[in-house]
UniProtKB/TrEMBL annotation:
Keyword vocabulary terms for this entry: Membrane, Transmembrane, Transmembrane helix
Lineage: Archaea, Methanobacteriati, Methanobacteriota, Stenosarchaea group, Halobacteria
Transmembrane segments: 20-39, 51-69, 81-101, 108-128, 140-166, 178-201, 244-264, 284-302, 317-341, 362-380, 392-415
Record's protein name: Cytochrome oxidase subunit I profile domain-containing protein
Classification via SUPFAM superfamilies: Cytochrome c oxidase subunit I-like
Coiled-coil segments: none
Cross-referenced InterPro entries: Cyt_c_oxase-like_su1_sf (IPR036927)
Length: 437
């Protein structure tokens, strides 16, 4: 875990300012989203969802796709200019959506939604054009399909925003609940979790150095073929109110994520490297996805069209455990990795340099991991069981504390090790690997 894998082409990466800007802005959305949850509670739910899921998770994914599609595939990014443009548009759009929900200003939602759509569609075009030159392996296929889902979910989101402001759905002949269900399905299971599954197919073997057998390969191929179909069937069935379509899609989605969880768990159990914050958080994600898949398969078979079952049962296990902890773990390697390549890679062999995992503070990582895990456990118990009234406050405070420590630990990596200052990184010119300050 302390070195750079030999089978990736770091020279094909875009300048470090491109992905790192995404990650820094995404961390701000994380802290803002947790803060809204603490201060506003249930009244700020929609704003918090868009701050965390769209702002934190999706901006992180946008930065990661822009960085690692060229690295993994060994090809140049189609356009660095478009990669730089997508972030401000998407970030302003996501922030505008959250502000519209938080302030009760429906007229703001279509404007913000349209801005976000343009930013996300630029990503889809830019990374999509890049993927066209790549070999169609498991990860590339997942990423390509995720881009399709990103385009679909932003389109549905703009329609919903227009309906909030002007009530357009009756004119289009579309039911509001059906479109809401389809929008949520395409967002979480399509755009986010398809990306997560594709990334884990590369990251888990790469950073555990575990052996991969024929059974793993076969299961991965089945998941690659069936899971995206399941997402489309589930979203389509929910949109038109078809129980049969939604039920088939629900089975494929739950089974696909169950396979992802099992494959990840096998890699973690067979890991031949020193345990790290990345792998620790991945273990929480593997357990969460497996638990969620088993419980949700039963709930969705009974009623996949219920709004309360939009994200399965319990939704917290999927969103926090299955998605959140994957992002936490991945960022604990990706951010130091990118900075290490641009600051220290050209010095390796000529002088003593820190390794990738030496760039962040491991004690802080341990504390934020404990805080976020306890908050997660309390949140799950609150959703499943009747807990004291103070539980929600404890969850919020622990989540805020852990998120601030996590964000601060990564920002410290920028401050201490980046060849550029943080303000210059966010606003200055692009740099290439090996260029020092």
């Amino acid at each position: 875990m302390s070195g750079i894998p030999a089978d990736v082409d770091a020279d094909a990466a875009p300048p470090m300012t491109v992905p790192l800007r995404h990650f820094v802005v995404a961390l701000a959305f994380l802290v803002a989203g947790v803060t809204v949850g603490v201060v506003e509670g249930r009244t700020g739910h929609l704003a918090q969802v868009h701050l965390l899921l769209a702002g934190w998770v999706c901006l992180t994914i946008m930065g990661a796709l822009t960085q690692f599609v060229p690295v993994w595939c060994g090809i140049e990014l189609h356009s660095r200019h478009l990669a730089a443009v997508q972030l401000p548009l998407a970030a302003v759009g996501f922030a505008g959506l959250a502000a519209g929900f938080l302030t009760g200003t429906p007229a703001l939602l279509p404007v913000a939604g349209a801005i976000a759509l343009v930013g996300v569609w630029i990503l889809c075009y830019n990374v999509g054009r890049t993927l066209l030159a790549a070999a169609p392996d498991v990860t590339a296929i997942h990423f390509g399909l995720a881009l399709v889902f990103f385009a679909l979910v932003t389109t549905a989101g703009v329609v919903l925003a227009l309906d909030h402001a002007a009530g357009v759905l009756p004119l289009l002949g579309i039911g509001r609940q059906g479109l809401l269900l389809a929008h949520g399905t395409l967002a979480v299971f399509g755009a986010v979790l398809t990306t997560v599954a594709g990334a884990l197919a590369q990251l888990a073997p790469m950073f555990t150095q575990a052996d991969t057998g024929r059974i793993d390969t076969a299961a991965q191929r089945v998941e690659t073929a069936c899971y995206p179909v399941g997402v489309l069937l589930l979203a389509g069935g929910r949109l038109v109110g078809s129980l049969a379509l939604a039920r088939i899609g629900a089975v494929l989605v739950a089974a696909g994520l169950g396979v992802v969880a099992l494959l990840l768990a096998r890699q973690l159990i067979g890991a031949r490297v020193e345990w790290s914050p990345m792998l620790t958080r991945y273990s929480v994600a593997a357990l969460s996805l497996f638990l969620w898949a088993g419980l949700t398969a039963v709930a969705w078979w009974t009623d996949p069209l219920a709004y309360t079952g939009l994200l399965g049962q319990p939704s917290t296990v999927l969103l926090v455990g299955g998605v959140g902890f994957v992002v936490f773990g991945t960022l604990y390697h990706v951010v130091p990795f990118i900075i290490w390549v641009h600051r220290y890679s050209d010095r390796l062999g000529f002088e003593d340099v820190p390794m990738v995992d030496d760039l962040y503070n491991h004690r802080i990582a341990a504390v934020d991991g404990v805080a976020l895990t306890i908050a997660y456990a309390l949140l799950v118990s609150k959703q499943w069981l009747e807990t004291p009234n103070g539980t929600a406050l404890a969850v919020g405070l622990l989540a805020f504390f852990g998120s601030v420590l996590f964000a601060g630990n990564l920002v410290a990596v920028f401050v201490e090790h980046s060849p550029q200052s943080l303000p210059t990184l966010l606003t200055g010119r692009e740099r290439t690997p090996g260029e020092d300050s």
